[in-house]
Request: fold
Amino acid sequence: MSRARVVVVGAGPAGMMAAAQAARLGCAVVLVDEAPRPGGQIHRQPPPSLAGGAVSAAARPEAERKRRLFDRFARHAGAIDHRPGTSVTAVYGLDRILIADETSSQLIRADALVVATGLHERVVPVPGWTLPGVVTAGALQALLKGGRVRAGDRIALAGAGPLPLVAAAQMVEAGATVPVVALLRPLWPGLLRDPAALWAGRGVLWEGWRWLSILRRAQVPVLTRHVALSVSGEGAAERLVIARHDGRGRPVPGTEQRFAADTVAFNHGFTANSDLARMAGAETRFDSRRGGWLPVRDGDGATSVPGLFVVGDAGGLAGGLAAACDGAVVGAAAAGWALHRDAGRFAAQAAQRTGPSGRATGRSRRRWPPPGNCRRTSTSW
Reply:
């Protein structure tokens, strides 16, 4: 008799934890991912020939989270059929999942399918955004983490949220000049409205403060309440034009500023990558604050399609810290369904064992959603 099969799509923190948990519980696990190495965007790995090197003080918390995640994944990697460089192109049902690599395609079946496809970056288009040299902030990170490549020498960033700030600091550490970081909103007022969340997230906030300190030491202007107007240049990006806005995104005349740059990076937030779950027939709802059209899922990640589970940012933006927690619980639920047609059979135990960082704990915890300090302090850095 063949073993119950769990197919996990996506090898970021959520997918890695889901695959490891399902393998630990005795399932045959197939882990499908487009990238050549696991880790997702946040823990993207360079080729072995480029691995190693010093880690800055600001990057150490992320490096430690990455180490813990990979250590746990490695314990069960021998029982996981990891298929890198492979995409899921269609889901006709759990018994007909079409996957393809660079040479061929095939149909595989699953007793349980876990969608851990993460998120997309969102960019608000401006005149000149299609010029060579205009990228997303995530692309800056992908080039640096995955290939030790700096996208340019003079890199300007614009958008909203923490990612432009972190990417800018990483570019400074990589030797680039950053002429400006232009943000739509102020940094702190939203946090100050919720003191409990502020205290619960003090570790992540301290991590963010370290990145800001890098920008301050490099004398990088961080301009809040500013909007990007255009990118211009002769055949490629050469300058970014920004202006102060009136609080509703409309530029205030006479406040325009121009910054020379050979690379311009944008990030205006994220959208959940829920396409695969929707293709499989999962019921969805729209939540503008958490990523757009999201699969409706219960506390164990189960959707309206029996045997289909959604985990991590694909089910609602919460960031890498929460994704690892979510992965452990949903992976256990998927194993319970594959083995016993009972999604909750192992999920409660996984929720009790897994803390906010994805580490095993001895304390009892309620089932997913995880405690507030797991979801509310997460970030997409």
Notes: Confidence is low (pLDDT under 50) at residues 356-381. The longest strand covers residues 87-93. Residues 320-340 form the longest helix (21 residues). DSSP finds eleven helices and 20 strands in the chain.
